[in-house]
Amino acid sequence: MESIIEQLQNSFHKGFIDREFSTSTRFRPELLVNNKQQRKDVLTSLVDELKNCRSFMFSVAFITESGLATLKSHLLDLKSKGVRGKILTSTYQMFNKPKVFKELLKLDNVEVRIADVEGFHSKGYIFQHDTHVSLIVGSSNLTTNALKVNYEWNIKLTSHENGEIIHHFNDQFQVMWDQADHLSLAWIMAYEESYQPPQFFKVAEKAAPYEQNKLGDSLSIQPNQMQEAALEGIQQVRTENEEKALIVSATGTGKTYLSAFDVRRARPKRMLFIVHREQILHKAKSDFQKVLGGEDKDFGILSGTKRETDARYLFATVQTISKSDVMRSFDQEEFDYILIDEVHKAGAQSYLKLIDYFKPQFLLGMTATPERTDGFNLFELFDYNVAYEIRLQEALEADMLTHFHYFGVTDLSIEGHGFTENEMFTYLTADERVDHVLEKVEYYGYSGDRVAGLIFCSTKKEAEQLSHLMNQRGYNTDFLTGDHSQETRQAAVQKLENGALDYILTVDIFNEGIDIPCINQVVMLRQTQSSIVFIQQLGRGLRKHDTKDFVTVIDFIGNYENNYLIPIALSGDHSQNKDNIRRRVIDTSYIQGKSTINFEEVAKERIYESIRTANLTQMKVLRDAYKELKNRIGRIPMLVDFQKHHSIDPLVLVDKKGNYVEFLEGVKEEVGHLTHRERQILTMLSQEVLNGKRINEPLLLRLLLDHSSISYPEYKEKVLEQGGRVDKQTLHSVERMFSLEFFKITDQKKYGNKPIIIFEGNQISWEEEIASSLNENAIFRTFVHDIVDVAMTKSKSYSPAQPFTLFEKYSRKDACKLLNWENDESSTVYGYKPKYGTCPIFVTYHKPEEVESSVNYEDGFLNPEVLTWYSRSKRTLQSNEVVQIVEAEQKENDLHIFVKKDNGEGSDFYYLGQAIPDQNTVEQTTMNDGDKEIPVVRMNMKLEHQVNQKIYDYLHE
């Protein structure tokens, strides 16, 4: 194997002399930029280096609280490993606020000094590793804008510790470090006294554009970009002579202003705005008056004892207006425009009574969470007219919400099960746990001058006792439950807003319908039972406010079975596909903009364990998701609908029952008549083609559905247009797939024992019986089309020009097919199998303890480019299969490496690319098999491509 010196020399050659030079990619020089389209940012590279270093030094002029927050959980993990670092920063231009120095002081394993030099403006990050030193230097300060959003240039270089360039950086750092001031509380107090915020801090307002208007002219208040699009959507519904529309808009994205803009456009003679809580009412009235203009008498309240029923624009609570005598005091056509806020509550009798009574020209419903768990179909109520929809990720990307830093932190563990309610309460409020909670809350902090926090608890008793215990420790808190009156709740909210309270502790009553923009910290002290509730609680802190730059979300993750819901909620991925969900923990780039998602290591492992043990495909879960989608679109969904609406992965549905028809019948849907053979064909296409891992099969089906038959040259041309493979072996493999000859006898029987497609001479066509079914049975044809549509979409995730796509997942059976083997030999591909000039190698990284010692190989990564690998036991250097692997390069045998973390991941493995054995490491050794030693061959496999750092960390942990 190349020495570290050789790897560095070769990387230098590739980076600075000849970019075509073939070498390891591990240490190559790299330009780091923030690229939203490619989902790349500087922060990812910085964190990757930080997680794997043995010490670090940062020299950065500017640091923001938000920028520091992106690293806090990683620094805490390093602390547990005994890794320390240094940060050298400055007071240049007084950019660094006093509070950020207080946050820096919390980092026990980081020493901080302040450069005592005029114009300190450096931006460099140095990481010491066991074998090398990495350097990131360029334009990025330690701010979220610089690390995630701004157009930045940074070069990442790797050097041996004796390299001159690193010595220059180390020497310069040390010179500045030696003359710098030590960060201390006394230093911060002195800095606070002299601190004057720079002018540019005062330029940007945090409120939404339409709230910045100071002219008093309603027409000058204009909708933002999202609202413009939503208004067009509403107008389109009206243009089509529809009388109802639904707006789905994330919390904090300005639904009230949006509805006011539409009322301004529609100009109704009279308008009714219905809400479910009185405290929302006055704010809504005020917002409408800003947008619409007009005299005070035009805007009235109908709630409690207020009866301003003559107003042109009437704002009413549902509790008051749904009273029969109040409702019937209005003519049914009194209001030509009615708006219902938080309309997901419209399944309640009070709402249905109003909707049934009034006959407006237009009814608009607004909600952030249209999904219901009580079976009520909100979409049907609004005639399936979803005028516009913006979810959390889109709103964050559009900078409509305050960005957040989510921290999945480790709660104290509870050993064992079967706790009584009193025992659980005792644990939740024990001094040790309270101290632990407060330690985390203090460490992760908040944005702004003072904390304004919401803490969501598990029970009323817990909220009350924790509030009492926190008050004893010097905090100002109060607790609120459903037992408290609206007046009590409102008084507590006002105290939180004016600084008289630090925290309100509650049990779910603030999930929705309350607007407290100043909230800068949300603490979740209860297990996640629902992704909907999770997003509602997260959303409490996302409204923009001029007292904060971001919101801190601290989620205490205990030993809960349903921890898998956390990545589902954060990503919005409802596929129920375990691998998809696992990836949402590994790679959080689905959150755009300046927000970040961070998990402490132990918390992350708890989520992985929850994913591993969860039954995500139990029929009740799938049935509920099916019903939800059916409600949304107003008809029986096809597989492609699940894909289009980001619902359950179609592969999960067909794996449950064999094909989608069987699933539909399982949820009591009438599908229509299908013959036994037609069902067998649907099963084959669902099990073997739907995944789209090779473009050739779904593309051929698409062509035959369109033309009944096609010539071989035409087919090859179409495959080439898609970038696919048309070599003789691949085309032969496709033939054997559709003739069923590739499959084992049991699968052939399951799929009908007859060919599906006939390859005859130069022509390709459907088998006669299938052709007849497609022509005569529209139901069968529809389901085949559906499978092909999904497969074509899924195929876009895979590289068509190669058998496998890096870091995607494949089973042993997939490998046999995609390597163009004659038959499915997956049952005999134990750890590896050389065949036809190829050899797939499958590695289970963490084997169960109960695995027999004779097959418990110690495979493991040395680094992201080298895997130490063992042959099967009882093999020597003379064994034929070993010779084929050792001499793979000379014999032109392709070695393909597939790895999974453990057996909990199922039958699929990450594809890590091709590899070649390092001849210098090939050796015959032994392993224990009970009382005796048996031979085995060990070698290092040099991977052609460096393993994606996130997947490497996941597998290696």
Topology record:
Layout: H1 4-16, E1 30-32, H2 42-51, E2 55-60, H3 65-80, E3 84-89, H4 98-105, E4 110-114, E5 123-128, E6 133-138, H5 144-149, E7 154-159, H6 164-178, E8 181-182, H7 185-194, H8 225-239, E9 244-249, H9 255-266, E10 271-275, H10 278-292, E11 299-303, E12 306-307, E13 313-317, H11 318-321, H12 324-327, E14 337-340, H13 349-357, E15 362-367, H14 378-381, E16 386-390, H15 392-397, E17 403-410, H16 421-428, H17 431-444, E18 453-456, H18 460-472, E19 477-480, H19 486-498, E20 503-506, E21 521-524, H20 531-538, E22 550-557, H21 565-571, H22 578-586, E23 596-599, H23 601-613, H24 619-633, H25 639-644, H26 650-657, H27 660-666, H28 676-688, H29 696-707, E24 709-711, H30 712-721, H31 728-739, H32 745-750, E25 757-760, E26 763-766, H33 768-776, H34 778-794, E27 809-810, H35 812-818, E28 838-844, E29 860-863, E30 866-870, H36 880-886, H37 888-891, E31 894-900, E32 909-917, E33 923-929, E34 932-943, H38 949-956
Parallel strand pairs: 2-3, 3-4, 9-15, 9-16, 10-13, 10-14, 11-13, 14-15, 17-22, 17-23, 18-20, 18-21, 19-20, 21-22, 28-31
Antiparallel strand pairs: 1-7, 2-5, 4-8, 5-6, 6-7, 11-12, 24-26, 25-26, 27-32, 29-30, 30-34, 31-32, 32-34, 33-34
Helix pairs in contact: 2-3, 4-7, 8-9, 9-10, 20-21, 21-22, 22-23, 26-27, 28-34, 29-34
Notes on the structure:
The structure is a single chain. The protein has 957 residues and is α/β, with parallel strands linked by helices. The protein folds into 5 domains: 33-198, Endonuclease, Chain A, CATH 3.30.870; 223-390, P-loop containing nucleotide triphosphate hydrolases (Rossmann fold, 3-Layer(aba) Sandwich); 411-613, P-loop containing nucleotide triphosphate hydrolases (Rossmann fold, 3-Layer(aba) Sandwich); 672-797; 809-956, PUA domain-like. Helix content is 39%, strand content 19%. The chain contains 38 helices and 34 strands. Strand 11 (299-303) and strand 12 form a beta hairpin. The chain starts with a helix and ends with a helix. Residues 203-216 and 850-855 have low confidence and may be disordered.
